[in-house]
Design brief:
Ubiquitin-like (UB roll), 38 strands, 14% helix, mainly beta, globular
C-alpha cells in the first residue's frame, strides 16, 4: 500500500493508503454567512451546487493573469502531445499560456485569411509563465489520479515570428477505481435514493474532482429530503502496486432542517408581495433544494422579471432554520414599443409593431396593442426561395395579410397561479392554396398553472369571418358548383366555440434551441446529465347552437415532442401530431386540418399533403382535348404542375410523425437529418358525395437535411427535403366561361414532377427556430 497525494478537495491519504475527507452543505461553516448556493437559470441543481462548492476551474492552482507589461511574440497554437486521458479544454483551463483565437464564429473567414485585431483575441507569450504552467499541468494530472505524470515544455518559432507552445506529456499509469460504495443512505426513513449514478464510477481514475462531485451529489440528495446539514466522509483504500483504489462514501444525515426567514430584494417597479406569493415554500416547512429551483422558475415566468436568484444562507448548528435571500430584477424597459419580424417559406416577409406594458398599472398584468403584416413581397417573390409557398393559390392569395389586436392578461385576485386573458382582433389571413379569410373576433380565457410547467385553460372565442377566393373548394368538397351555392358558402359566418387546452413544458418552450458548451471539461460533462426535453399540448373545441355558433363541430388537436441530449454535440428529437374533426355541417376550409410545409412534412409544399383537386383554365382544358362538360376529359389524360393548379381538400383526420438527428459542429451552427411522415384523411366519418370524389386519404414519408444557425437576430433554420411521390389520380375542375358554373371534367393522372430530376423534387424551407 502507498499514499496518493490529495489536492483541493482535502482528500488526504496516510501511509496506510486509507484516505479520509468530509464534505457537508451547511453544518461545517465558520462564523458568518459563509459561501452560498446560487441557482443559475436553466442549470441543473447538482451542477450549480458543484460549481458553487468546488469551483469550475480544472482543479489545479488558479493561474495568475499574464504580465501585460512584458509582451512576447504572439502564440499561434498551444499543444499537448501525449495527452490521451484528459481532454484538451481541461488542460487549457489549467494554464496561463493561451493561443490567439477568433472572437466570434461569424468572423472565422476573416480570421482565416487576415490577422486583424478586431477579429482575433490576441495572446502573447510570457516566458516566465511556461515553467509555472508545466508545474500546473503536473499538479492537474496528480489530482486526476496520475501520480507519475511528467510534463515538459518547448516553443517553436514560426516563419512569421509567431510561436507554437508545446507541453509534451507522459501520463504514466493512472490509479483506477475498482469499487465505489455508498453507505448511510438508509440512515433515514425511507432511505435516500440517488437519482443519478455518481460522477465517480468503477473504471475511472482515482480523481479528486470526481470524488468531490460525488460527495456533493450525495449531500444534495439528503438536502432534497430535508437534511441540509448532511456530511459525507470519504475513505479510500489505495493499492499502489496494483494501481487500484476502492472508495467508500459514508453519509451522515445530521439534523433535519427547515426554511427560515425569507429576505426579498425587488427592484422597482417589482413589488415584494408579488415575489412572496410565488414562493414554493413557507417559513417553517422542511427544507427542499427543489423548492428553491421551483421558486426561481415561478419568478422567471413573470414577464416583468428579467433575472431571479434564490440563495440559501449558510448557518451554524444548532440553528437548523435556513434563511433565504431572493433577488429579482426587471428588464431594462418594462413598457414601450417592440418591433418584430420574420421570414419564412409560407408567409414570406412578416413585420409587426407592439406597444407592451409588462407591469400594467403597477401590478403583474400585461397589456399589449399590436399591428402586423405578412405575405409582404409574396406577389414579387411567391414561388421562389425564400418565399417558396407564400402567395400560392391565385390572385387573392398573394395579397398582404394583416392583423390588429389588443390583449390584456390579468392575474386572478390573490391567486398568482390563475389568470384571465382577454383578446380582440381584426385580421386578413391566407393559407397557401387553401383559403383566404377576413373578419374579426374576440376571446376570453381563464388559465390555471396546475404545477410547474403545466397550464390548463378554458375559453370562449366568438368570431365572424368571410371567405375570399375559395369557390372551387366548395365544389370539390361539397358539390356546391353553381355561383349561387358558392356564394352561400362564402357568406360571413359566426363561429363561437368553447375551447379547452393544456400545455406541458417542463424543460422550456417548444422550438427552443439550447446551444452547447463545447468548452465543457470532463467533470462538467459528467455532471450535466443526458436528459429529455419534452413538451406537449392539446386543444379541444366545440361549437353549436348552445354556444351561439352558426356551425356545429367538435375539433381536437394533440401534439407532443421531445429532445434527448446524447453527449455535448449530439441530440435526437421526435414529434407526433394528431387531429380529429367531427361535424354535422359543411365546414369552412379554415376549420379543417392541413399538412405539408416547413413545420410539418417538409418534402411537400405548404398544405399540399393529402387529398387534392385540380384546377385548369377553360383554355388549358380545351388544349388537353377536354370538352367543357361533365366528365369531358379523355381517358388516360396525364397532367403536371405546369398544366394545372393543385388545391388541398383539407381533412377530418390528421396524423404526423417526425424524427430528427442533430449535431453541433460549432457553438452556433447545427446540422440535422430528418424524416417526416404525414397522413390526412378527407372524411373519416363519410360525407356528401362530390363530383369525382377525391381520394379518401393520402400518406407520405419525406427525408431531408438541414442547418440551424444562431444569429444575432435569432436562430435561422434552412431545411431541404425530398419528395418521392409518384403519379396520383385526382378530380379536375374548370369554370364555365359563360355561366360561371364549376365543371367537373373527370379524374386525371397528376404527375407533379414529370420531366424533372432529383433536384426538382427537393423542397427548401426557411424559418426561425426548431420545427419542434
Amino acid at each position: 500500500m502507498g499514499a496518493v497525494r490529495g489536492g483541493r478537495s482535502g482528500v488526504g491519504c496516510g501511509a496506510s493508503g486509507v484516505c479520509v475527507a468530509r464534505r457537508g452543505t451547511f453544518g461545517a461553516a465558520s462564523a458568518g454567512t459563509g459561501p452560498t448556493l446560487r441557482l443559475l437559470p436553466r442549470m441543473p441543481l447538482i451542477v450549480a451546487a458543484v460549481m458553487a462548492l468546488i469551483g469550475a476551474r480544472a482543479y489545479a492552482q488558479e493561474p495568475a493573469p499574464p504580465d501585460t507589461a512584458v509582451r512576447g511574440p504572439e502564440v499561434e497554437d498551444v499543444r499537448f502531445p501525449g495527452a490521451r486521458r484528459l481532454d484538451r479544454q481541461l488542460l487549457k483551463d489549467a494554464i496561463v499560456t493561451q493561443e490567439t483565437e477568433c472572437r466570434s464564429g461569424w468572423l472565422w473567414l476573416v480570421c482565416a485569411v487576415t490577422d486583424l485585431d478586431f477579429a482575433e483575441r490576441k495572446a502573447y507569450l510570457d516566458a516566465a509563465e511556461l515553467e509555472r504552467d508545466r508545474a500546473r499541468l503536473e499538479e492537474l494530472y496528480r489530482a486526476w489520479g496520475f501520480p507519475d505524470a511528467r510534463v515538459g515544455v518547448r516553443t517553436e518559432t514560426q516563419p512569421d515570428g509567431d510561436v507554437v507552445v508545446e507541453f509534451p506529456i507522459e501520463e504514466g499509469e493512472p490509479i483506477i477505481v475498482r469499487a465505489v460504495e455508498v453507505r448511510g443512505l438508509d440512515s433515514v426513513t425511507p432511505p435516500v435514493r440517488l437519482r443519478w449514478p455518481l460522477p465517480l464510477r468503477p473504471g475511472d481514475p482515482y480523481a479528486q474532482p470526481l470524488i468531490e462531485a460525488s460527495q456533493v451529489a450525495i449531500v444534495a440528495a439528503f438536502a432534497e429530503r430535508g437534511y441540509p446539514f448532511a456530511q459525507v466522509e470519504v475513505s479510500g483504500d489505495v493499492d499502489q502496486a496494483a494501481r487500484t483504489a476502492s472508495v467508500t462514501f459514508q453519509a451522515l444525515p445530521g439534523p433535519p432542517g427547515v426554511f427560515g426567514p425569507v429576505s426579498i430584494r425587488a427592484t422597482p417597479p417589482l413589488r415584494e408581495e408579488d415575489v412572496r406569493e410565488r414562493l414554493a415554500f413557507r417559513e417553517g416547512e422542511r427544507f427542499r433544494l427543489s423548492a428553491l429551483e421551483e421558486t426561481q422558475r415561478a419568478l422567471l415566468e413573470l414577464p416583468a422579471v428579467q433575472t431571479a436568484t434564490v440563495t440559501p444562507v449558510q448557518v451554524q448548528l444548532p440553528d437548523t432554520a435556513i434563511p433565504t435571500v431572493i433577488t429579482v430584477e426587471p428588464p431594462d424597459r418594462v413598457e414601450g414599443l417592440a418591433l418584430e419580424g420574420n421570414i419564412s417559406s409560407a408567409r414570406c416577409l412578416e413585420a409587426a409593431v407592439y406597444w407592451r406594458d409588462l407591469y400594467f398599472r403597477g401590478e403583474p398584468r400585461v397589456f399589449a396593442i399590436g399591428v402586423g403584416f405578412s405575405n409582404l413581397l409574396a406577389k414579387q417573390l411567391g414561388g421562389d426561395f425564400p418565399c417558396a409557398s407564400a402567395g400560392e393559390g391565385g390572385e387573392d392569395f398573394d395579397d398582404p395579410n394583416y392583423f390588429v389586436e389588443a390583449e390584456l392578461v390579468q392575474p386572478w385576485r390573490d391567486d398568482p397561479w390563475t389568470w384571465l386573458t382577454f383578446r380582440g382582433l381584426a385580421a386578413r389571413e391566407s393559407a397557401p392554396r387553401a383559403y383566404v379569410r377576413r373578419g374579426f373576433g374576440a376571446e376570453a380565457m381563464v388559465s390555471r398553472r396546475l404545477r410547474p410547467g403545466l397550464v390548463a385553460s378554458l375559453g370562449y372565442a366568438p368570431q365572424r369571418f368571410e371567405l375570399e377566393g375559395s369557390p372551387l373548394y366548395f365544389c370539390g368538397n361539397f358539390g356546391a358548383c353553381t355561383p349561387a351555392s358558392i356564394d352561400e358558402f362564402g357568406e360571413p359566418t359566426w363561429l363561437a366555440p368553447l375551447q379547452a387546452s393544456i400545455l406541458w413544458t417542463p424543460a422550456g418552450p417548444p422550438g427552443f434551441i439550447q446551444p452547447p458548451n463545447l468548452r465543457q471539461t470532463f467533470v462538467e460533462r459528467r455532471l450535466v446529465r443526458p436528459r429529455w426535453r419534452p413538451w406537449a399540448r392539446g386543444t379541444l373545441q366545440a361549437a353549436g347552437a348552445a354556444t351561439a355558433s352558426e356551425l356545429s363541430f367538435a375539433r381536437a388537436l394533440v401534439e407532443a415532442a421531445t429532445t434527448r441530449n446524447l453527449g455535448v454535440r449530439f441530440e435526437i428529437a421526435g414529434r407526433t401530431r394528431g387531429g380529429l374533426l367531427a361535424t354535422g355541417d359543411d365546414l369552412q376550409p379554415y376549420l379543417r386540418f392541413y399538412s405539408g410545409g416547413g413545420s410539418t412534412v417538409r418534402g411537400v409544399s405548404q398544405n399540399l399533403l393529402g387529398p387534392k383537386y385540380l384546377i385548369a383554365t377553360p383554355a388549358r382544358a380545351v388544349a388537353f382535348g377536354c370538352e367543357l362538360e361533365f366528365d369531358g376529359c379523355p381517358a388516360g389524360l396525364v397532367v403536371d404542375d405546369d398544366d394545372v393548379a393543385a388545391r388541398p381538400t383539407g381533412g377530418d383526420l390528421l396524423l404526423e410523425a417526425n424524427l430528427e438527428g442533430r449535431v453541433w459542429i460549432t457553438e452556433r451552427v447545427q446540422l440535422a437529418a430528418f424524416a417526416d411522415y404525414g397522413m390526412l384523411a378527407r372524411q373519416w366519418l363519410g360525407g356528401p358525395g362530390t363530383p369525382g370524389d377525391a381520394s379518401d386519404s393520402e400518406s407520405l414519408i419525406t427525408p431531408g437535411i438541414g442547418v440551424r444557425v444562431l444569429t444575432p437576430l435569432g436562430p435561422v433554420r434552412l431545411d431541404a427535403a425530398y419528395n418521392p411521390q409518384g403519379t396520383k389520380v385526382y378530380p379536375l375542375f374548370t369554370e364555365d366561361p359563360t355561366t360561371g358554373d364549376v365543371i367537373f371534367l373527370g379524374n386525371v393522372a397528376y404527375d407533379r414532377y414529370r420531366g424533372e430530376g432529383f433536384w426538382g423534387r427537393v423542397k427548401l424551407h426557411l424559418g426561425i427556430g426548431q420545427v419542434f
